[in-house]
Specification:
The structure is a homodimer of 204-residue chains. Chain A has 204 residues and is mostly helical. Chain A has helices at residues 7-23, 30-37, 41-48, 51-76, 80-97, 99-107, 109-116, 121-140, 149-165, 176-193. The first copy, chain A, starts with 6 loop residues before the first helix and ends in an 11-residue tail after the last helix. Chains A and B meet through helix 7, helix 8, helix 9 and helix 10 of A and helix 7, helix 8, helix 9 and helix 10 of B. Chains A, B: One of its GO terms (molecular function) is transcription cis-regulatory region binding.
Amino acid sequence: MPKCRDEVDQRILDAALARILQVGIRRSSLDDIARRSGINRVTIYRRFSGKDKLIEAVLERETERMLTEVGSILTDAEDIDERIEQTVLYVLRQTRMHRLVRQLLDVAPEEALTFYTVHGGEMVALGIGYIADLLDRAQHARLIARYDSEPIAEMIARLAHSLMLTPKGGVDFTVDEATHHFVRTTIVPMVKYGIATSSKEITR
Amino acid sequence: MPKCRDEVDQRILDAALARILQVGIRRSSLDDIARRSGINRVTIYRRFSGKDKLIEAVLERETERMLTEVGSILTDAEDIDERIEQTVLYVLRQTRMHRLVRQLLDVAPEEALTFYTVHGGEMVALGIGYIADLLDRAQHARLIARYDSEPIAEMIARLAHSLMLTPKGGVDFTVDEATHHFVRTTIVPMVKYGIATSSKEITR
């Protein structure tokens, strides 16, 4: 769920994001962020209780923004397979190509990795929650089968997380055609039907 | 497939592993490794063409070792569900608890993360290949349904990769009971039956 942030919070978060994109997380200080946002250090501290929490809030807001954009694709595509495929491709592309991911890996790679791994729980949780919510809504609209959405959401979010950090290994997810094929043949059926739970469900 | 390494190679790899566990990757030099193994720098260089390739070979050998151990569990457990569950749990536990993972994250965390992400393609590829091979053998023995093993292997290897780096998020994979439940209800059926490919396969 997006948190309600007032205009002052938003200005602080904007300044923090801009600064992070410029010099990375470690070298961004509350003083820099205060200067850039025109909001004093004490207010920033009071609202976010310190730099770590502020950075967390920045990452959270960026993840939410990205996920909000996903909703719009869902209405554009034609049939349900196409809609699932486009949504999953968008999520995979965004987790890799988002400016915060690319820029941070560029400006301060090792530091960025720490944030996407050791401190990545919140990001993974947001992703799982969002995907589960999409699945629930699709189930409610009878577009896909009824199944427990949480484990499928976890599998997809974890796939995206692993691909964001290490895109090559098996399927080369830096190549569009390979990515499309994998999504179409593996993720789309998984989203549409869930996981088979008895041998009667096996046809091939 | 494990590479054939002669005794000299093994001594070099042992010395490199010991040194890495002691001081991390960056601070391990070929000189240190030469001293510890009693094999001169030129020979090491000639056999592994430099430190980067040597480190890669160390990580590869450790991954292979871990995967070889997996094979033995497969024969111990009673029924097929139990065997799949135990194997998956072992893989997940090992990817997180292996001495190279823990020690390296301890000695040089940011550096370790680089190796498990930016340079993690080889490790992911080994994992996928190994899991696909296990699945193929189980299919051949008619223990599980026939399906394309590669995408399922990729999903499982990517899950393990993501969990190794960020164990909490959705299901808390640091808690045994939660991990067992997820593996039993999601991974075991996926391994046993593959992914459903038509709506006829949906029973719930």
